[in-house]
UniProtKB/TrEMBL annotation:
Substrate binds at P161. The record marks R65 as: Transition state stabilizer. It catalyses: 2 a phenolic donor + H2O2 = 2 a phenolic radical donor + 2 H2O. Removal of H(2)O(2), oxidation of toxic reductants, biosynthesis and degradation of lignin, suberization, auxin catabolism, response to environmental stresses such as wounding, pathogen attack and oxidative stress. The lineage of its organism: Eukaryota, Viridiplantae, Streptophyta, Embryophyta, Tracheophyta. Pfam families: peroxidase. Its cofactor is Ca(2+); heme b. The active site is at H69 (proton acceptor). Ca(2+) 1 binds at D70, V73, G75, D77, S79, E88. GO terms for cellular component: extracellular region. Gene3D superfamilies: 1.10.520.10, Peroxidase, domain 2. This is Peroxidase.
Length: 327
């Protein structure tokens, strides 16, 4: 626990000295929002995440993806958590998300300690940060004060980035949320942890673009390994690490794999083959820019930026009693 707080304080100090605008974004969220109303809020969330992570480390990428998917649809309002036949979580891109039980655990404990105070949207933002730290990644100060949305529709998930999207389409989708090209590359770098089902990339191995061959951007030495993991007529649900040999550790090896033609998803590998994004991949591989900033530092900043997309604050929205249902 000591290492966790040392890392958190070090990153927080960097943010306060170097980029104060990311700590208080002027949208009603701020770091320490619950310092008086629920002083143990962040530690309760952290404990819930750690407890589940210790028995199942796959909750780390699950929580990170869930936060991303929540923010890209109607903003960071916890709408991804709502149950319902036509709710967001039922949309195709969201059906394989995991980690809901972590949010439920944290909410139950928070309602016992501070009834009606901490939003589900904030729990998810905090849990994503804590999950990254537990996976070996950086910590960052999470502005809180979001309120929960009252609408959750699967049809609204159509603007989520897709695994076949071109770089231009990816940039358009990120720009629509106020995120630039560097944010795109940085946040996709979150694929350093987690897995993908074969169904989302097997077409690259056997019949790319309706041909009989593989995607030419795949390293030829890597192709047999992928084909053995995902046979042409094999189990579509089988999981493969998005960061070869390092899917459980948050680091920058994901970018090295892109450079070496070992990206799993087509949309990921395009970050290297497109010049507008390749620059940032190279930067995270050691060609550092102004101030020598690294992937770890940039990731925290982009996460703060993303976590403030279209947030509900003040009297907008609500504080759900149960994260899976509107009050």
């Amino acid at each position: 626990m000591g290492n966790y707080y040392f890392k958190q304080m070090s990153i927080a100090l960097f943010f306060l000295l170097a980029v104060p605008a990311t700590v208080v974004l002027g949208q009603g969220t701020r770091v320490g929002f619950y310092s008086r109303s629920c002083p143990r809020a962040e530690s309760i969330v952290q404990s819930a995440v750690r407890s589940r992570f210790n028995s199942n480390p796959t909750v780390a990428p699950g929580l990170l993806r869930m936060h991303f998917h929540d923010c890209f649809v109607q903003g960071c309002d916890g709408s991804i958590l709502i149950n319902g036949d036509d709710a967001e979580k039922m949309a195709g891109p969201n059906r394989l998300l995991r980690g809901y039980e972590v949010i439920d655990d944290a909410k139950t404990q928070l309602e016992a300690a501070c009834p009606g105070v901490v939003s589900c949207a904030d729990i998810l933002a905090l849990a994503a940060r804590d999950a990254v730290v537990l996976a070996g990644g950086p910590g960052w100060p999470v502005p809180t004060g979001r309120r929960d949305g009252r609408v959750s529709l699967s049809s609204d998930a159509s603007n989520l980035p897709g695994f076949t999207d071109s770089i231009d389409v990816q940039k358009q989708k990120f720009a629509a949320k106020g995120l630039n090209t560097q944010d795109l590359v940085t946040l996709v770098g979150g694929h350093t942890i987690g897995t993908s089902a074969c169904q989302f990339f097997r077409y690259r191995l056997y019949n790319f673009n309706s041909t009989t061959g593989a995607d030419p951007s795949i390293d030829t030495a890597f192709l047999p390994q992928l084909r053995s993991l995902c046979p042409e007529n094999g189990d579509s649900s089988k999981r493969v690490g998005l960061d070869d040999r390092s899917e459980n550790r948050f680091d920058n090896s994901f970018f090295a794999n892109l450079r070496n033609g070992r990206g799993i998803l087509e949309s990921d590998q395009k970050l290297w083959t497109d010049g507008s994004t390749k620059t940032f991949v190279q930067r995270f591989l050691g060609i550092r820019g102004l101030l020598g900033l690294t992937f770890s530092a940039e990731f925290g900043k982009s996460m703060v930026k993303m976590s403030n997309i279209e947030v509900n604050t003040g009297t907008n929205g609500e504080i759900r009693k149960v994260c899976s249902a509107i009050n």
